[in-house]
Amino acid sequence: MSEDCIFCKIIANELPGEILYRDDRVTAFRDIQPATPVHVLIVPNKHIPSMNEATSEDEAVLGHMQLVAKKLAIKEGIAEKGYRLITNTGPEGGQVVYHIHLHLLGGKSMAGGLV
Ligand code: AMP
């Protein structure tokens, strides 16, 4: 837990969040400013600031985040039409919150361009 991290506080129930999934390794909650009709953040319970700080020790949790995202895509009804999983890293990657997270985006077509 990092004292000044908003995602650590959501994980610890110290800040409100619409939690959709939680287990001993990850927590998933709705993004407060959804970019798409379905916008969920999947985060490790352990504070990892960004992909740049992730190590081989984090390999399992990073894979688990992807599989939890897949399950949530099914639950949210977007699996069949498709969705996007994004991890922004660093300033030019557009990262704002420095607790690694996977954006699950869907519910509208994003075909035709990546950026
Ligand atoms: P990023 O730009 O990849 O760091 O994404 C950070 C995301 O966190 C943005 O999409 C924000 O809307 C979202 N966010 C920031 N604060 C909260 C919060 N308290 N609860 C839920 N989502 C948040």
From TrEMBL:
PROSITE patterns: HIT_1 (PS00892), HIT_2 (PS51084). Residues 6-115 form the HIT domain. Coiled coil: none annotated. A motif (Histidine triad motif) lies at residues 99-103. SUPFAM superfamilies: HIT-like (SSF54197). The active site is at 101 (tele-amp-histidine intermediate). This is Histidine triad nucleotide-binding protein. GO terms for molecular function: catalytic activity. Signal peptide: none annotated. It comes from the Bacteria. It holds the Pfam family HIT.
